[in-house]
Amino acid sequence: MEPIRQVEGRAIPFGRKNVDTDVIIPAHWLKTISRDGLGKGAFEAVRKEPGNVFADPTWAGAPILIAGDNFGCGSSREHAAWALLDMGVTCVIAPSFSDIFASNAFKNGVLTVALPQEAIDRLMEVAQTDPIHVDLEAQTVTTPFQDRFEFPIDPFRKHCLLNGLDEVGLTLARADTISEYESKATAQLPFLAHATA
Amino acid sequence: MTQTPRTLYEKIWDAHVVETQPDGTCLIYIDRHLVHEVTSPQAFEGLRVAARKVRRPDLTLAVPDHNLPTTARLDAAGNELPIADKESAQQLAALRVNAPEFGIRYIDATDKEQGIVHVVGPEQGFSLPGATIVCGDSHTACHGGIGALAFGIGTTEVEHVLATQTLLLKQSKTLEVRVEGKLGKFVTPKDVILHVIGVIGTAGGTGHVIEYRGNVFEEMSIEGRLTVCNMSIEGGARAGLIAPDDKTFEYLKGRPYAPKGADWEKAVGWWQSLATDPGAKFDKSVFIRAEDIEPTVTWGTSPEDTVAIGGVVPAPESFADASKQQAASVSLDYMGLAAGTPMTQIAIENVFIGSCTNSRIEDIRAAAEVLKGRKKADNVKWAIVVPGSGLVKAQAEAEGLDKIITEAGLEWREPGCSACLAMNPDKVPPGERCASTSNRNFTGRQGPGARTHLMSPAMAAAAAVTGRLTDVRELIGN
């Protein structure tokens, strides 16, 4: 996973609320067995709307996406995070995110920044003409007009994102602790300890 | 010494903590992992690249469902028919290779036990009360219906569970949804959950695990509870659960992977101790009177866009918040509906009865009860009933339900996810409307431009008969 420290550049002023993962990447794009190439299918239906921000060359390749409340609701498809990455988006700013999407984004090095609606409104305005700067270390979003918004982030997630850490590798290092749990659980809850074998 | 009263969720959580990190993140042990073909190929690939094994193949079960066509899978000679869509075929083939390669029990598309993962898990006794269950699918919340802590995960998490049998999680908040009173006739579990989502909204449960409580859920069948918990994610909650009780134990006893003998006795003892303690605190509580729930349908493109069947399409300006007004206006445009139209005047061209929400035997029976001796309306061009598994299909056929369905002019299909999501040949054409028992009415969910109205199996069957959204109570009376 690529470490992430700063994200700077144009921000796509999408702004829509309750953007579900079917909107981010429709199901017919999920037939791939690879993680790459999904950017072509990202926001497929929105791209057909007249005057949409995704088809506008102003924001082509922009690394930041600004959206409304409850971004990424719906399906658990990680393809949503892969599609964003493939279109070049490494940071999404919204008032709130669905739990599963936020987790998938984190595991793929996409930074999710939750800010109050007033801040979103201001950033939507700035994004029309100017770039936005996101600093993960300082936990701030700033604009060329002296706007400065601080955002919260889970310390563990921050650490992993800053260092590009692979969670599977981190947990595999705890294999002995997992084995201890398994022996204890097998004794206490034997009926959960075996299923198909 | 008295222990602090705990909720059902907290008891299951506590029993599965492998380790707690200083910031409160917990390494949680996963008891059961269901795998399907869509969200697993990249996870298996990740294991292969890193030369990692599956830690507990014996706690893992793989079954294909999303991509499978629901038409015949074998020809007259018993040979497997090819799958026309090359990408679907490739994804299905990947699971067929990956599962045995990593030592995982695999149910094939042509096996009688095949079905939608969330139907297969409880049906096989693989899903158990008090267990932590995951699957790369957000409707995993479904298994909460038997009292499991079950939730959907992304592909990297699938890989994490395959490799370590654990997940790194923060404990969720708890949301109590209490429904009490007496449900009206033909007010089904689907109506209950659609009503609940209408009340709490699609983000109402974000960050929370829901526990459904009250006499309505206690009196509900296990299959009804699975329907309710299934749609917890539509209310923003990653998981939803209902305390296991005697009905749960009776449902599970004797199923292939359910505990046997002394293990069974021990299991029941523990399961009985899981119910929320008197005095346990929830972070949030919502109370709903059963009498306020009518047969419910959706009018828009979000599962929270619900209305009683006797109601009308709402006007965007009737919503308080400006962004919801705008969303409603976009939804109505997409749905091709005018504010003020009575719901029962909305004509439909397609009917889909199936999905992990409503494809179990009770759902098929409910649809058949309405369809018996009736015919599909002429304006309904496409109407399919898709059982959730091969075993549901066999049971329905043993009861003669398939005959009732086909005599009414609906098609009786092979098990799979079907028209719930546009990943296999079952799709709703652009601009056409579908009465659907699935769980999501998102833009394009059933196919590009498709217009979905969510409802119960009885209501979808009634719509098939009249060719418009219909109050099933008018059709079959009280």
Task: Please tell me about this protein's structure.
The complex is a heterodimer of chains A (197) and B (478). Chain A has 197 residues and is of the alpha/beta class. Chain A has a single domain (6-164), classed as Aconitase, domain 4 (Alpha-Beta Barrel), CATH 3.20.19.10. Helix content of chain A is 31%, strand content 14%. Chain A has helices at residues 21-24, 79-86, 99-107, 117-127, 155-163, 167-172, 175-188, and strands spanning 6-9, 11-13, 64-66, 91-94, 111-114, 132-135, 140-142, 148-150. Chain A has a four-stranded antiparallel sheet. In chain A, a hairpin with a 5-residue loop joins strand 7 and strand 8. The longest helix of chain A has 14 residues, at 175-188. Chain A is globular, with a radius of gyration of 19 Å. The mean pLDDT of chain A is 95. Chain B has 478 residues and is of the alpha/beta class. Chain B folds into three domains: 8-169, Aconitase, domain 3, CATH 3.30.499; 173-247 and 267-292, 3-Layer(aba) Sandwich (Aconitase, Domain 2), CATH 3.40.1060; 296-476, Aconitase, domain 3. Chain B has helices at 8-14, 41-49, 86-101, 117-123, 155-164, 189-200, 215-219, 222-230, 246-252, 261-272, 322-335, 361-371, 390-398, 401-407, 457-466, 472-476, and strands at residues 17-20, 26-29, 32-35, 60-62, 105-106, 132-135, 149-152, 166-169, 173-180, 208-213, 239-241, 284-289, 296-298, 306-308, 350-353, 382-385, 411-412, 433-436, 451-454. In chain B, helix 6 links the parallel strand 9 (173-180) and strand 10 (208-213). In chain B, helix 2 (41-49) packs across helix 5. The longest helix of chain B is centred in the N-terminal third of the chain and has 16 residues, at 86-101. Chain B is globular. The mean pLDDT of chain B is 97.
